[in-house]
Amino acid sequence: QVQLVESGGDLVQPGGSLKLSCVASRTIGTMGWYRQAPGKQREMIALMTRSGNIDFADSLKGRFSISRDDAGNTVYLQMTNLKPEDTAVYYCYATIVGTSAEYWGQGTQVTVSS
Question: Using only C-alpha atoms, what is the Rg of the chain?
């Protein structure tokens, strides 16, 4: 079992920036971020393997970026030029390569509002 703990969610003004962090209880292959806005389906933001391969939602490229620490158990999401439509619960996600095991964090709220 893998536990994921997110942090960094906050209320931010439009145009602002925010960095989310997610720490896993163990080193894990693929980590990333999803988000779910009110009344909408959960959508993928970005996934990153330990080797550095990234799968990124086209609509968020340029404003958001993903990174991981060298230890392989922390993933970050840097968000810039935030817009009200970025308001959502952001979830950390992890999966073990070659298995069907998936893990989710509890979610952290990001609210973009003036």
Answer: 13
Indicate if the pLDDT at residue 4 is higher than 90.
yes
Structure tokens at 49: 């393997």
Amino acid making up residue 82: L
Could you report the per-residue pLDDT of 53-92, keeping only the tens digit for each?
999 999 998 999 999 998 889 999 999 999 999 999 999 9
Residue 15 is which amino acid? G
DSSP string, 26-91: S--SEEEEEEE-TTS--EEEEEEETT--EEE-GGGBTTEEEEE-TTSSEEEEEE-S--GGG-EEEE
Closest among 36, 113, 46 to 82, alpha carbons compared:
113
The per-residue pLDDT of the chain, averaged, comes to 95
Q: CA–CA separation, 33 vs 26, rounded Å?
A: 17
